[in-house]
Design brief:
The structure holds two protein chains of two kinds. Chain A is an all-alpha fold. Chain A is globular and about 50 Å long. In chain A, α2 (10-18) packs across α3 (22-44) and α3 (22-44) crosses α5 (75-94). Helix content of chain A is 67%, strand content 0%. Chain A starts with a helix and ends in a 5-residue tail after the last helix. Chain A contains ten helices and no strands. Mean pLDDT of chain A is 85; it is low at 103-116 and 186-196. Chain B is an all-alpha fold. Chain B has three helices and no strands. Chain B starts with 6 loop residues before the first helix and ends in a 13-residue tail after the last helix. The chains are: A mainly alpha, B mainly alpha. Chains A and B meet through α3, α4, α5, α6 and α7 of A and α1 and α3 of B.
Chain lengths: 196, 59
């Protein structure tokens, strides 16, 4: 069964999970546990909380798989959105945000990820997005990073950066739009893989 | 405040609880925002791929 699932698209696996097929959930976990955990750890900076966020996100995936609408986006986006939302909820609750560490994203932490055992495509993807982020105007990049990795709300960002909230919203929107241009349309090939 | 303008912040999970509820209620009725959100969420999720991805601790 597992070998068979390996050939299915993410979207097909979500459709199977919606029909309570546990092996489909397992396959999705195998595919996304690593980026999910990396993201949760980046936000929460705590191993146990990051694990909690990932487990809860996959539980949420299992419970709400039937509500996934392929026409609205890729399954991978949905899964990582669930993880991100859970991690942000936790970081706000735990008040774990440490502002002195927020700018680390462009400075790879030595030893934190020995590339040796890391899947090559994850590394390539990371380098590609990091390169795109570097090309954003500083203020746009700052707004995106503080919001997405720091878990700050737009109101908190406005206060923190001493800017009107409208300015913060504009920077976030412009940053995401520019990022999209810089990255092209990654993953459009999987968007064609429809579910049954 | 134009609620349509909250789409980018929502895609980044940068709304507080009240704003999120308000925006989601709007989203259910607004085709334009659903389309915008689809696009902006893809871009926001690109940020997820920019972080180091160590294997989760074996548990």
């Amino acid at each position: 069964m597992t070998r068979e699932l390996a050939h299915l698209s993410d979207e097909a696996l979500v459709a199977l999970a919606a029909r309570s097929e546990q092996t489909a959930l397992g396959e999705l976990y195998d595919r996304y546990a690593r980026p999910a955990y990396g993201l949760a750890l980046r936000i929460l900076r705590d191993d146990a909380l990051a694990e909690d966020a990932v487990q809860e996100a996959f539980l949420s995936l299992w419970r709400t798989a039937s509500r996934f609408v392929p026409e609205r986006g890729k399954a991978s986006t949905w899964i990582l959105t669930l993880v991100h939302r859970r991690a942000v909820d936790l970081v706000r609750r735990e008040e774990l945000r440490r502002t002195d560490q927020i700018d680390e994203v462009h400075e790879p932490t030595a030893g934190a990820s020995s590339g040796a055992d890391e899947q090559a495509w994850l590394r390539l993807q990371r380098e590609r997005v990091q390169a795109a982020l570097q090309q954003l105007p500083d203020q746009q990049r700052e707004a995106l990073e503080l919001a997405y990795y720091g878990g700050f709300t737009q109101s908190e960002l406005a206060e923190r950066l001493g800017q009107p909230i409208g300015t913060i919203k504009s920077r976030m929107f412009a940053g995401l739009a520019r990022l999209r241009e810089l990255l092209g349309d990654p993953g459009m090939e999987t968007a064609w893989t429809s579910t049954t | 405040m134009d609620i349509h303008d909250l789409t980018a912040a929502y895609a980044l999970d940068a709304l507080d609880a009240d704003e999120t509820r308000e925006y989601e209620a709007h989203l259910a009725q607004c085709v334009r925002c659903r389309a915008d959100l689809s696009t902006l969420s893809e871009s926001a999720t690109a940020l997820a791929w920019a972080v180091d991805a160590p294997p989760p601790p074996a548990s």
